[in-house]
Amino acid sequence: MKKIGFDSQKYIEEQSKYILERVNDYDKLYLEFGGKLIGDKHAKRVLPGFDEDSKIKILQKLKDKAEVIICAFAGDIERNKIRGDYGITYDMDILKSIDEFTEYGLKVNSVLITRYSGQPATKVFINKLEKRNIKVYTHEAIEGYPYNIDQIVSDEGFGKNPYIPTTKPIVVVTAPGAGSGKLATSLSQIYHESKLGRIAGYSKFETFPVWNIPLKHPVNIAYEAATVDLKDVNMIDSYHYEAYGEVAVNYNRDIETFPVIKRIIERITNQESVFQSPTDMGVNRVGFGIIDDEAVKEASKEEIIRRCFDTECFYKRGMADDDAVNRIQMIMEEMELKKEDRRPVIPAREYASLVKKKETTDELTIAPVSVVAFELPDGKIITGRSTDLMDSTAAAILNSIKYLANISDEILLLSPVILETIRKMKDVDLHSKITSLNANEVLIALSISAVTNPTAQIAYEKLSSLEGTQAHSTVMLNKDDEQILKRLGMDITSDPIFSSENLFYI
């Protein structure tokens, strides 16, 4: 079992209190939320014990005082940008977020499309939202933003943006990902509030980097590893040190733009800003929730290795550039880490090598062998390989739950007749090019078998015990299998190798 390194309850209480203290200074506070509001898997991985839904639970405590504006950059909608942790496009993530906010009792004020210029796919998305009675606003790009302050703070800048009426003292501004226009939205709203004679303020709730732990702490380095595509670099906040003589960590983009943001706020409010540094703008108290620094350091190093695998796979698929790969490899060197330090990696590769040697002496004549290795929460390594009957992910899941349920390898959980019937349906009736069963199909078969087969029922009940499992594949998994593992609470990495020569049927 992994050590707990973070106290979520303490964090939620401390964070809620601190946000309320900041609200007291204004008629209305625009609170920019960075990172994931719901399902913050990165924070959960690097801070063992962190509740991945902590942020939304903090807001739930403040729900009588808060409402939400969701921002989306029109360009991201137009090119179907995908949120990696869920494997869904940004427009779908917005719909998902609205449903989740509603379940938590939070009011969603509206969706704001930023830098909108009539993009066709974005028009369709706007229409879809409006048909469901969701308010939608659009902002055009402001020429010279963020540096031409005279243009920005004028009727031709923020003044051209429609004002979004809000009724609560806290307005949470969130988005599916970075670059969605959260800051510009907050400043635009503050501009209009000022015109209406209200005192409105801005703060930023960004979990990482953690400002009050060392610059080179593995938690902060893991943040850099997670944002190699954005080229984020952690830095000492020089403004904070100059103002208070206190070392604080922030990242390059916030530090670089701080003077401009400060001047924009001062121009809007016609008074000197209360912020002396970008760290001042933040309300993040996550550092105070760390209760075991060594456990957090170890978890963060594991996350860096996972990010290395992810970046190399993104590169192989054409979704990352050379700079991202070079940066993650530099981080690995800096932290003196190797990919083989991840425990499931070597067992998966060794089993694949063994299978390959048995199948042929000419390695060039066959496709890569697909093997998935699980490191279960108790440290046990379980493997599964692809066969004509089922893929490696499905095999590894079945082998693992049999181990957890103390079921002998010789005992079949699923009737071969049932499996062959499903394969035949895929081949003959559905004309599928791939007839082996994937993880989703095997789990459905298992759940049905559990109704009449007591042994299958015992194994089925062990699925929840797979949460926290570390998994590695010798080939890049298809999205369906990858998402199944993530939904089961596993952390999966893959070697950057395509599973076959096929371009579509993989």
TrEMBL record:
Hydrolase as UniProt keyword: yes
Domain DUF1846, chain residue ranges per copy: 4-335, 341-504
EC number: 3.4.24.-
Biological process terms in GO annotation: cell division
Top enzyme class: hydrolase
Pfam family name, one: DUF1846
InterPro entries, A to Z: DUF1846_C (IPR048441), DUF1846_N (IPR048496)
Swiss-Prot/TrEMBL keywords: Cell cycle, Cell division, Hydrolase
One Gene Ontology term of the molecular function aspect: hydrolase activity
Hydrolase keyword on record: yes
NCBIfam families tied to this protein: PRK13663.1
Name of the protein described by the UniProt record: Cell division protein FtsH
